[in-house]
Amino acid sequence: MVADLSQLVKAYDVRGVVPDQWDEPLSELFGAAFVQVTEADAIVIGHDMRPSSPGLAAAFARGAAARGADVTLIGLCSTDQLYYASGALDLPGAMFTASHNPARYNGIKMCRAGAAPVGQDTGLTEIRTLVENWSTDGAPVQAPTTPGTITERDTLTDYAAHLLGLVDLSAIRPLKVVVDAGNGMGGHTVPTVFAGLPVDLVPMYFELDGTFPNHEANPLDPKNILDLQARVLAEGADLGLAFDGDADRCFVVDERGSGVSPSAITALVAARELARNGGEGIVIHNLITSWSVPEVIRENGGTPVRTRVGHSFIKAEMAEHGAIFGGEHSAHYYFRDFWNADTGMLAALHVLAALGGGDAPLSELLAQYDRYTGSGEINSTVDDQTGRLTAIKAAYGDRDDITFDELDGLTATSMDWWFNVRASNTEPLLRLNVEARDEKTLAAVRDEVLTLIRA
């Protein structure tokens, strides 16, 4: 019987429970299918600290090598370190991680050479079809095929050097920085990247532990940065940084212990990257980032391009437009000089450079980039996602002061607010984001839309 992988293969990655939804034999098939679809004669593989990651990565490597591809294993790494390896070595890559999901989950983020994304429209559908067809009898033997080699290589030092070459930190003032790695891969990368900087590093939860004993490694959930906020205040630190499980996302806390909107970080980095590129260039932002983002981009000479949510989509837009930078509401930050891939670490270095280059505290520095009030993402479990979206549009459809678009879910925009409601790619959820010019308007719109969602 052919396996149904619809619950495992998502829009832009593979993610599910191990071993209930997938295991090492299935990972081996993914390795073989990945090589067949990408036509790669060599690939690079990395993995996070989850208990199942080394075995799944090794199985994927066996499947790839059996198809004739030479495999370079870089071992424990962050997702952006895998993207670095894919870019620097010019090889397709696979990263074994489930990011911030609970310990029983694992997944694969795949890319072509140069960290180009593999999503539903760029090879993932074909990979899924092959694995489903091979699930009963295994991948067919290709003869004559000489098995590829499997070798190991450490890329951490080179990754750190590449990032530090993209941001001038030579003249920053000493900074005290608390970093919460959430027992994820930030505990592996931060010590090396920060090693030569004038930074008094206060580490939190740097022990690599894929069971996440202290808190979920998802800094977008406010409860997961409470420890960091308290520690920033207790230490009198200049700022705090929180990384997610695979350390490709970075969330910032200011000196007051307040969480900083990823949109404000997007605007800050956009301004810096535009200045670095002579005051011109295209910057990508997804449709859930703040109104502040396109405003700041235009004010600094750039051209904003609005796109849907998701790293594969952002990367595709980056490549199509030759964009210099891209940012998402979820604290993913993409750089042309990092093969259009996302790296929270590089965004963090930009924040350190901006803060360390002046005397103002972070809250004051960022005030110019944080102009509106936002709800953050509010999730609701909904059985009939399409029906709820239709009902929401109908409820607002007869108002002349509102415009709609359906680039990604449903976005409604008025003079004083906007909201977006979109379906999750991975769960039976509708995700609501609202922004307004003041708190009172925000609360009214948020509550009104949530009533419709949860009706």
UniProtKB/TrEMBL annotation:
Family affiliation: Belongs to the phosphohexose mutase family.
GO molecular function, one term: intramolecular phosphotransferase activity
Needed cofactors: Mg(2+)
Protein name: Phosphomannomutase/phosphoglucomutase
Species of origin: Streptomyces finlayi
Any one GO BP annotation for this protein: carbohydrate metabolic process
SUPFAM superfamilies noted in UniProt: Phosphoglucomutase, C-terminal domain, Phosphoglucomutase, first 3 domains
Keyword Oxidoreductase found: no
Source organism superkingdom: Bacteria
UniProt keywords, alphabetically: Isomerase, Magnesium, Metal-binding, Phosphoprotein
Cited InterPro entries: A-D-PHexomutase_a/b/a-I (IPR005844), A-D-PHexomutase_a/b/a-I/II/III (IPR016055), A-D-PHexomutase_a/b/a-II (IPR005845), A-D-PHexomutase_a/b/a-III (IPR005846), A-D-PHexomutase_C (IPR005843), A-D-PHexomutase_C_sf (IPR036900), Alpha-D-phosphohexomutase_SF (IPR005841)
Domain Alpha-D-phosphohexomutase alpha/beta/alpha: 7-134, 158-257, 267-372
Residue span(s) of domain Alpha-D-phosphohexomutase C-terminal: 377-450
